[in-house]
């Protein structure tokens, strides 16, 4: 009986390790996703600001 208890405990420990690895991977992927989204949002905003400045210049206004 003691042997099967140790096997079960080892199984729980292994499952716990795998879950921790999976959670870390999930956190890294989420951080990467949000970092990429922020970068894209900044690029979009930059494009909008550049377009607005170009329209003002074409209209004879200040930059």
Number of helices: 1
Compute the average pLDDT.
Answer: 90
Helix content: over 70%
Shape: rod-shaped
Strand content: under 5%
Q: Between the first and last Cα atoms, what is the distance in angstroms?
A: 81 Å
Assembly annotation: single chain
Give me the secondary-structure category. mainly alpha
Low-confidence stretches: none
Tell me the number of strands.
0
The helix/strand order is H
Major sheet description: none
Question: Over the alpha carbons, how many angstroms does the gyration radius reach?
Answer: 27 Å
Compose a concise summary of this entry.
The chain has 63 residues and is mainly α. The protein contains one helix and no strands.
Descriptive account of the structure:
By secondary structure, the protein is mostly helical. The chain is about 90% helix and about 0% strand. It is built from one helix and no strands. The longest helix has about 55 residues, at about 1-60. The mean pLDDT is about 90.
Keywords:
single chain, 63 residues, mainly alpha, 1 helix, 90% helix, rod-shaped
């Amino acid at each position: 009986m003691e042997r099967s208890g140790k096997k079960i405990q080892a199984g729980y420990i292994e499952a716990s390790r795998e879950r921790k690895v999976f959670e870390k991977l999930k956190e890294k992927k989420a951080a990467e996703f949000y970092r990429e989204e922020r970068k894209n949002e900044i690029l979009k905003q930059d494009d909008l600001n550049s377009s607005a400045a170009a329209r003002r210049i074409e209209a004879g206004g200040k930059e």
